[in-house]
Amino acid sequence: MKPIFYTIALLGLLVSCGGNDDPPPVPEGATLVFPDENSECTTGVSVNAALSQVTFQWQASENTDSYTLNVVNLDTNIPQTISTASTSASLSIEKGTPFSWSVNSMNSNSDQIATSDTWLFYNAGSQTTYAPFPAQLTHPISGSTVQMNGSGEVVLEWQGADVEDDITGFEVFFSNQNPPASIATVGEDTAEIAVSVSASTIYYWQVITTDAEGNTSDSGIFEFRVF
Known about the structure:
It contains one helix and 19 strands. By secondary structure, the chain is mainly β. It folds into two domains: about 30-125, Sandwich (Immunoglobulin-like); about 135-225, Sandwich (Immunoglobulin-like). The strands form four sheets. Strands 2, 5, 6, 8, 9 and 10 form a six-stranded mixed β-sheet that branches. Strands 12, 14, 15, 17, 18 and 19 form a six-stranded mixed β-sheet that branches. Keywords: Signal. This is Fibronectin type-III domain-containing protein.
């Protein structure tokens, strides 16, 4: 009977060890709270003539033990980051300047990172009117390679936003040369345009946003390659 006893004992050991094969918990994306999306942030504490300290807030996300706050100056594209276990963090940022912000959620037992939505806001300054936020070029992503459609075209897509909600239009620049040339001006309700392309070619594009006060903002130049 001993061999049978040893076999049963071994099987029991294997079953008990198998309980440690559960996958590590995957963090979920945080929900942003403040500064509000497409808003003017007026709650910053003045640091000096150029900077104010803004406190960013978000809701706790599941399976998360740390966060990284990402804040980008949209005029310079210079990022600032700060890591924390809390659901808020403060940074000193430029006054009268547009920013984007997002939060990465992480778990020390997982190599996966969850990213929140990205919100835009203006950090209040001395001005009484604000330029539109720089258009967010969403497709094609800069540096990507895309395939033309059956008509030999690629659709350029972007998102526009403004604190005062008074965008009047977008001027689109597109070319296989850098800087690209102006090809069209479209109304505030248009956020895409189809352009003719050729295979194995690099293209450059850019969007200038204008509001009712005549203020403008520049998306910056993106590039993509066509198969």
